[in-house]
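Saturday, quiet lab. Running sequence design on the structure tokens for the scaffold JK sent over.
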């Protein structure tokens, strides 16, 4: 199983970094392409970390949890899968808008609003995962 201590660290980092992005984007001067590129590179990095983290859960954590703690895990793993889909949709929309904003500074508010939505679903998801999944994962080693 995953080291649940590291899962808490990753979740904390993801919540923190994604929660900072909307205000950074709203505050970036449209006429400052260097600042947009810097913020955009960071946004791209945390988006990739999120995608990789969830791919790892989907490929490794959920199957092992279902195998080792089937009765306790079945319902919550289904919920986690649904939440991963919602996060992926918000993530994909953010990534879609990222390049245009970085290059041209267009629709900063729309991009930031998409990120606000991503922060909301990510925060809800990680809180539930920490409450309902990680304790089961830890004792199912």
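Result came back. Writing it out in full:
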């Amino acid at each position: 199983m995953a080291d649940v201590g590291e899962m808490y660290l990753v979740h904390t980092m993801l919540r923190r970094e994604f929660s900072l992005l909307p205000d950074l984007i709203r505050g970036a001067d449209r006429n400052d392409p260097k600042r947009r590129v810097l913020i955009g590179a960071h946004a791209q990095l945390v988006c990739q970390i999120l995608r990789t983290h969830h791919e790892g859960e989907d490929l490794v954590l959920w199957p092992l949890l279902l195998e080792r703690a089937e009765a306790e895990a079945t319902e919550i793993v289904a919920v986690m899968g649904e939440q991963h889909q919602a996060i992926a949709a918000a993530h994909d929309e953010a990534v879609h808008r990222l390049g245009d904003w970085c290059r041209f500074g267009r629709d900063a508010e729309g991009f930031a609003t998409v990120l606000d939505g991503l922060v909301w679903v990510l925060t809800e998801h990680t809180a539930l995962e920490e409450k309902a999944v990680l304790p089961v994962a830890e004792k199912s080693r």
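Notes for JK: The two ends are 6 Å apart (CA to CA). The longest helix spans residues 33-68. Ask whether to fix the surface positions before the next round.
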